[in-house]
Amino acid sequence: MIPPLTAIARRMLLGGVAIAATDVSPAFGQAPSPLLAQRVNEANAGTVGVIAGGVDGTYIRIAADLAAVLDNGNALRVIAMIGKGSLQNIQDIVLLRGVDIGIVQSDALAFARRTRLVPGADNLIQYMAKLYDEEIHVLARRDINSLEDLAGQAVNVDLVGSGTAMTASLLFDTLGVRVRTTNDVQDVALTKLRNGEIAAMVFVAGKPARLFVGIGADSGLHFLPIAPASDLMETYLPATLTTADYPNLVPSEGVETIAVGAVMAVYAWPPGSDRYRKVARFVEALQSRFQEFLRPPRHPKWREVNLAAQVPGWVRFDHTLRSGARRGADGG
Q1: Which residues, including other chains, have CB under 8 Å from residue 286's CB and lie 6 or more apart?
Q2: Nearest-CA neighbor of 138 among 172, 183, 184?
Q3: CA 276, 281, 282, 286: dihedral to nearest 10 degrees?
Q4: What is the pLDDT of residue 330?
């Protein structure tokens, strides 16, 4: 005979909600009571899942901010999830239950179309907001002075399917630089770079990227410049890494680089469906409480967000943005 549920087991089963013993079935395998079923429905009624990036990237910090500011209980509960990068996030939005929204690079949808990553991606993926620009960081050993010096060298580009891997492929192909790519997670790659096992690592993240902030001046590492070549500017934007961003890695004159936009992508739920209404409530909450994202301890990248900005090549999920949701950098 299966023993009765313990108090701990009941809390685990119910996602941390403590209720009386009479409210649950006495043994595993039995149908939940009507009260429990009601609690499950109530708990899920306002839940929106946001898939982000790895623990050292900007995406997960933005998703955590969304959960901290917008989560107000059963009416709207935001679940921030660690993801594996832009291309995987595109797939997860379409394929995974519980994932409604994902933070991706703006070039990810075009790449998905071109490679047929997700059949019908044009009709299944939309965007609700352009967020900010993410800078391309190429951290290398001191004996490497340019991207061209990386030819034939081992360069880490994050996990296969990540936004960084996608952008690195486009970057090196455009410049005609053939490198030997590795696909370690970024904290492992940084250790290998310090140990001289690889020549450089590429990381697409909003500056300042937490992974690089603690690197000392005696590390023997530096950022390589990326000149705004015309071929690159068809897709990317010019940007600069400054001493204020990375005091121990960037000289006073700064380091040239390029940037790609980050987009809050969403599954194109049919209007009137339950999931559509939940995402619409999320959009409404984001607009009405946007000013809260501009104050500490929220990520400084929120100050670059313009909720009304258009994203070329994408279809917007919600076209009813309020006039009050202005650019954070202008003080709202």
Answers
A1: 66, 70, 128, 129, 307
A2: 172
A3: 140
A4: 38
Do residue 229 and residue 308 come from a single domain?
no
Distance of CA 302 to the CA centre of its chain: 13
- CB–CB of 76/46 below 8 Å? yes
Q: Distance from CA of residue 269 to its chain's centroid?
A: 21
Question: Are 309 and 321 in contact, with CB atoms under 8 Å apart?
Answer: no
Measured over the CA atoms of residue 132, residue 210, residue 255 and residue 143, the dihedral's sign is: negative
Paired tokens of 305: 């967000």
How many whole angstroms separate alpha carbon 310 and alpha carbon 304? Answer: 14
Instruction: Compute how many other C-beta atoms are within 10 angstroms of the C-beta atom of residue 28.
Output: 11
Cα atoms in the 13 Å half-sphere on the side-chain side of 192: 19
- Which of 246, 261, 276 is at the close of a domain? 261
CA separation for the pair 128, 126 (Å, rounded): 7
The encoded tokens of residue 155 equal 């360069």
Ranked by mean pLDDT, which of 50-59, 108-117, 287-296 comes out on top?
A: 287-296
Helix axis angle, 86-95 relative to 163-175, nearest 10°?
130
Q: Give the end-to-end CA distance of the chain in Å, rounded to a whole number.
A: 63
Distance CA 103, CA 87 (A): 10
What is the value of pTM for the model shown? 0.69
Higher-confidence position of 75 and 240 = 240
SS3 87: helix
Q: What is the pLDDT of residues 271-288, one digit of tens each?
A: 888 889 999 999 999 999
Answer whether 317's CB lies under 8 Å from 127's CB: yes
Q: How many domains does the chain have?
A: 3
What is the residue range of 211's domain?
A: 134-261
Give the CATH number for residue 218.
3.40.190.10
- Quickly count: other Cβ atoms within 10 Å of residue 166's Cβ: 24
